[in-house]
Design goal:
The protein is about 25% helix and about 20% strand. With about 375 residues, the chain is α/β, with parallel strands linked by helices. Strand 1 (about 10-15) and strand 2 form a beta hairpin. The two termini are about 20 Å apart.
């Protein structure tokens, strides 16, 4: 392309400091270096994790920063040594990389690449410890090696995967985080069984994807739990058999769920990222064989406290990163299944806005009015 090897000026949303919403600025995006890829982002979703960056919940984040980790786009150019993609390919940047070399990538038991932000310091810079973004003469930091809140972004080759050339990018951007994370939590991590009972704490984009996964696995009862009742109709449309709000009960929600199901649910999913709801989800599980899956990411430094008797009598507490998928291996297959209409993931997208209205997108998230807001460049 004509822009290959050159600095590109484009729009991006810069979070200048914690506590302030991102502002749309003109930024300069440097060409990719060895084993890097520059991508023209077409669509990007606003995830609660991005809101955590805005609010300063992750103390290892350096500001100013370009957030965004759920996007889809087209390869603009590649640096020396890149063979996994070529200019013109439709791609999804990977917020969970797959380097293919670390012990986790080489093991069939794990998917959390040891180069990801959960294992190493958060990727504020590229692997060579430099940035590809500048704005007003200042260095701008990367986020999770994706930074999809920029019309052009640069990612390491471990953090990119080619997808179906016919895939509609404005629809499959949710495959960058929300859908595979939630769906995989049910299918891969919990391994929900036909006829089982499930409770899903949090009915946002990821939580609703858990609902889709539980339904696909044949769960007979899927109970959605959220304080925002406006989300209940969508949850039921996607497979929830009933929905409850903790605010409607005088007793703890875990006690309500145990009473509803006899001895507790077979599977509980916490998709909010709060330690109090994580403890409640564990307590809502069947007393002798229930499984609680932690999906939501709590603020850094959080500590989870619970009665260890829950574990001693047979309950399981397990974590889940990106739905247990090996990103480079599995994401293209998930997108292909979407193209075959295996699921209605389009239902997760409640709002579509031009990128310039990113602040409005965050306001919709804060007001509880959006499931997933997708921004289009």
């Amino acid at each position: 392309m004509a822009t290959a090897g050159k600095v590109i000026k484009c729009k991006a949303a810069v979070i200048w400091e914690a506590g302030k919403l991102p502002s749309v600025e003109e930024v300069e995006v440097a060409p990719p270096r060895a084993h890097e890829v520059r991508v023209k982002i077409v669509a990007t979703g606003i995830c609660r994790t991005d809101d955590h960056v805005v609010n300063g919940f992750f103390p290892k984040i350096d500001y100013p920063v370009i957030a965004g980790h759920e996007g889809a786009g087209i390869v603009e150019s590649v640096g020396p040594g890149v063979t996994c993609v070529k200019p013109g390919d439709k791609v999804i940047p990977l917020c969970l990389p797959q380097c293919g070399e670390c012990a986790s990538c080489l093991s069939p038991k794990a998917n959390c690449c040891l180069k990801c932000h959960l294992c190493e310091p958060i990727q504020n810079l590229m692997p060579d410890k430099t940035s590809r973004f500048t704005c007003q003469g200042k260095l701008i930091h990367h986020f999770m090696w994706t930074s999809t809140f920029s019309e052009y972004t640069v990612v390491p080759e471990a953090s990119i995967v080619r997808i179906d050339s016919e895939a509609p990018l404005e629809k499959v951007s949710v495959f960058g985080c929300a859908f595979p994370t939630g769906y995989g939590a049910a299918i891969n991590t919990a391994k929900v069984e036909p006829g089982s009972t499930c409770a899903v704490f949090g009915l946002g984009g990821v939580g609703l994807s858990v609902v889709i996964g539980c339904k696909a696995a044949g769960a007979s009862r899927i109970i959605g739990v959220d304080i925002n009742k406006d989300k209940f109709p969508k949850a039921k449309e996607l497979g929830a058999t009933e929905c409850i709000s903790p605010q409607d009960f005088k007793k703890p929600i875990q006690e309500v769920l145990v009473e509803m199901t006899g001895l507790g649910v077979d599977y509980a999913f916490e998709v909010i990222g709060r330690t109090d709801t994580q403890a409640a989800a564990l307590a809502s599980c069947h007393m002798s064989y229930g499984t609680c899956v932690l999906v939501g990411e709590p603020p850094a430094g959080s500590q989870l406290s619970f009665d260890p008797t829950h574990i001693l009598i047979g309950k399981k507490l397990i974590g889940c990163a990106f739905g247990g998928w090996k990103t480079k291996d599995d994401l293209p297959k998930l997108v292909s299944d979407y193209m075959k209409k295996k699921w209605n993931t389009d239902a997760l997208i409640s709002h579509t806005l031009p990128f310039e209205k990113i602040k409005e997108g965050f306001e919709l998230l804060h007001a509880g009015k959006s499931i997933r807001c997708v921004l289009l460049f």
